[in-house]
From TrEMBL:
Keyword Signal: yes
Keywords: Signal
Secretion signal, residue range per the UniProt entry: 1-21
Protein name: ABC-type amino acid transport/signal transduction systems, periplasmic component/domain
Top-level taxonomy: Bacteria, Pseudomonadati, Pseudomonadota, Gammaproteobacteria, Cellvibrionales
Amino acid sequence: MRVWRKLHLLLRVSAWLLVLAASGVQGSAIQEVDVMQIRYWNGTAARDPYELALLLLALDKTAADYPPFNITRLEADLGSDRARHELARGELINIYAAPYRARVGEVETKIVQVPIPLLKGLLGYRNLVIREKDLARFEQISNKEELKPILIGQGRSWPDVAIYRHNGLQVMDEGLFSNLFAMLSLGRFDCLPLGVVEAKATLAAFDGDKLDLTIAPDLMLYYPWPVLFQISGKHSLLAERVTKGLALAAKDGSFDALFDHYYGELVEQLREQESKMIVLENPTLKEQMGLQEPQLTALGL
């Protein structure tokens, strides 16, 4: 199965590189750049070490064929909407990692999404951050119908909102990410779904214990939610390089090795858990990628 997945990935990358070439990226352009300027942003601290390491791996794999690079990191809470606009402009930032978005609207047409999932679908597994006093309430939930009375909290312009609403769930999407934990504690909504790769660390970073918040211990959500490198369309050479680098890393096994280094233990923990899992449909991926079942079943989940 792994050999087939790698072959499928290489075929998809080859097709994508043809698209980039058709859009005006020619081999001679590589010679016209002395230093590739990479302006990187990551809005999720818990995922940042892995995603940055993966970007550096992709750049290293292509070092022989591309110019040297310089990375400038932006440390700011841009918010989802502003980040998309800044990425489209390609000046303040020109790359970051984020979940797939449908190519709808003027801003999205100016952004290149490298079609190689970075987290093997792991971000689609969602823990529910809740108030400690609501533990008994969430213990009674085991399916989507029972989840419908729950008000889900999300940040403004988060793409997840469309998924929850498509599945008939209630959503409050207000405020920046940094405000959501206090809002949950104050009762503005009932739960905050976060990816298993980030939930515990993020809750600790925002002093969840002082806010009387916790993670529902035996309930998870899943929806297909591939995280991709998002790159400004004004920097198509960078998009070409990252695409090639990730494909090379997938082919030689270094991609899998890096994933296992950061998330292998978490995958083992998920294997051992007996949590109830509510599977939601992601309408934006229904045709494009066809990923509706939990992707990590290949890893034994």
